[in-house]
Amino acid sequence: ERAGMNLGECAAFLVLETRTHAERRGANCCATLRGYGLSCDAHHMTAPPPDGQGAVRAMLAALKDAKLTADAIDLVNAHATATPQNDAAETQALTSVFSGRTRPLYVTGTKSMTGHCLGAAGAIEAVLTVRALQTQIIPPTIHSQNSILEEPFFLVQKPQFRAPIQCAMSNSFAFGGNNGVLIFQKN
Predict the structure, then answer these.
(1) Beta carbons of 186 and 65 less than 8 angstroms apart
(2) Which residues of 18-53 are buried (b: 16+ CB within 10 A; e: fewer)?
(3) Residue 159: phi, psi to the nearest 5?
């Protein structure tokens, strides 16, 4: 486990528009973008700081922008590169942001299925997060037998895992310390 990342190829996009505009043109809204957060930790060109503080700042900024508490999030689509250093830093960040929860937080790592699509990774993971909200089926983290996550986190590993999810977070942490987090809500 965590022997390095697999590269993938994909393309994805999301159309963002106001609800009023979407309704006026008869569009079916897939989800609502509640908030976003950005940060740059500039720790190293390819490695995050071990304490995950850049990721923490981005997640907290997204929660603040969404006007939500950490308890409102039901699912995190983690950046989850399957590299020891990155996964440990993200786990530390998730623990910092979501400690004290009284109910499980579902976590998935969709790169396990798509590979790391580099520039397209954030878009494809956002699309998969929105799709999970629409279907109430969380995509699994495949090829992972030993989770480094502890309660309150629940790493989804089974296909077709159904759970009631209303709000979901999608994490994207890039080279150079750029961190982006999106929060979506089910319509």
Answers:
(1) no
(2) eeeeeeeeeeeebbbebbebebebebeeeebbeebb
(3) -65, 155
Averaged pLDDT score across all residues of the chain: 90
Q: Strand 137-138 vs strand 153-155: parallel, antiparallel, or unpaired?
A: unpaired
Match 């940060």 to its residue by tokens: 39
Domain extent listing, the chain: 32-186
Q: What's at 126, amino acid-wise?
A: A
Instruction: Specify the pTM.
Output: 0.91
- Rounded mean pLDDT of 8-16? 90
Better pLDDT: 186 or 112:
186
* 184 vs 32: CA distance, rounded Å: 5
Looking at domain 32-186, its CATH class is alpha beta
